Amino acid sequence: MSGATLDGVTISRAPQQERSRLTQQRLLSATVECLVEFGWSGATTTVIADRAGVSRGAQLHHYPTRASLVLAAVEHLAELRAAELRVEAAALGGLAGHDRHDRVLDMLAASFTGPLFVAALEVWVAARTDPELRAALIPLEAKVGREMHRLAVDLLDADESTPGVREAVQATLDLLRGLGVANLLTDDSARRTALLAAWKDQLATILNR
Amino acid sequence: MSGATLDGVTISRAPQQERSRLTQQRLLSATVECLVEFGWSGATTTVIADRAGVSRGAQLHHYPTRASLVLAAVEHLAELRAAELRVEAAALGGLAGHDRHDRVLDMLAASFTGPLFVAALEVWVAARTDPELRAALIPLEAKVGREMHRLAVDLLDADESTPGVREAVQATLDLLRGLGVANLLTDDSARRTALLAAWKDQLATILNR
């Protein structure tokens, strides 16, 4: 790595803490890439270390177990995606009402067909039959779920004190998860677009009650 | 197997065709059980043959590849579940309107949290990164999807010529798939029941337009 540059900074001269952070980020990105490309069974720690260009020793130093690496990667990606969604939402400016809801729904739907969803689903399904991974994933699932719900409420400018609104936001996220699974093997975007158009009308009625 | 009895018939005396059918059914049931219990990576052909009490030779005779065995198992279970749903629906008798829709929705939701869903999801996710399995699964996914849609339309007594009804039935199935995934690691039934109660009201409005 000595002499390599990133953003014009010679990594070998960066402080230890900064180098650690970069190593971690490369491992987390490589983990998501390998989960998307090879699935759970193919995304072994060896394959991930190779992809990241990080030694096994350094990998074990930062993430002692496969579970710790994979969970950190899913959490990292969830945070990145939430930040992206907030940036995209800011770009909507003063857009309000039905137009805003439609655009937000498209943005959320994209999250459930992108790499975060695919990587997370690989880990979720593997965790079902892996007690150690499952125990570690359950609190993360709850945290990511809560944050996704809060983000959706914010972006949709939804008032959860109105009866039915909370359930409608939840149903939207569950629907999008189902549409994500339907998109795993084939491009389901035509059907998804038609279905979401109808859902947007439904949602608008509930949110504007 | 000699001398064992099933439904009072001595299997060793059953005709060859009947014995083949029984062997196949044991293999298919064992495949689903192993997928549910051990996940995709643990449900190897050896583990499945052991569970079924069938020799590797007999297994290879009926299902030459892991993909053929797993696909036959998912298709078999989908047919069984569809038949069960029709029997449960028949038991609803003359129940109509909102009451009927509510009960049908509960029955469909149970399908997306039961062993068929879990076994199918294991196969779906594995197929994403396994080209041979993926190629074989895509037509089966389309067939099972069409049949599930038709079944839902029948059971809900839905008129798809009414605008929005077709999309509402599709959204229902996609929502239930999303709820199935949300139920993988933890018992999500309390949240699911509350959410489905709200969706039943929505659906009733659309179906009775």
TrEMBL record, chains A, B:
<feature type="domain" description="HTH tetR-type">
    <location>
        <begin position="21"/>
        <end position="81"/>
    </location>
</feature>
<dbReference type="Pfam" id="PF00440">
    <property type="entry name" value="TetR_N"/>
</dbReference>
<dbReference type="GO" id="GO:0000976">
    <property type="term" value="F:transcription cis-regulatory region binding"/>
</dbReference>
<keyword id="KW-0238">DNA-binding</keyword>
<dbReference type="GO" id="GO:0003700">
    <property type="term" value="F:DNA-binding transcription factor activity"/>
</dbReference>
<feature type="DNA-binding region" description="H-T-H motif">
    <location>
        <begin position="44"/>
        <end position="63"/>
    </location>
</feature>
<dbReference type="InterPro" id="IPR050109">
    <property type="entry name" value="HTH-type_TetR-like_transc_reg"/>
</dbReference>
<dbReference type="InterPro" id="IPR009057">
    <property type="entry name" value="Homeodomain-like_sf"/>
</dbReference>
<dbReference type="InterPro" id="IPR001647">
    <property type="entry name" value="HTH_TetR"/>
</dbReference>
<protein>
    <submittedName>
        <fullName>TetR family transcriptional regulator</fullName>
    </submittedName>
</protein>
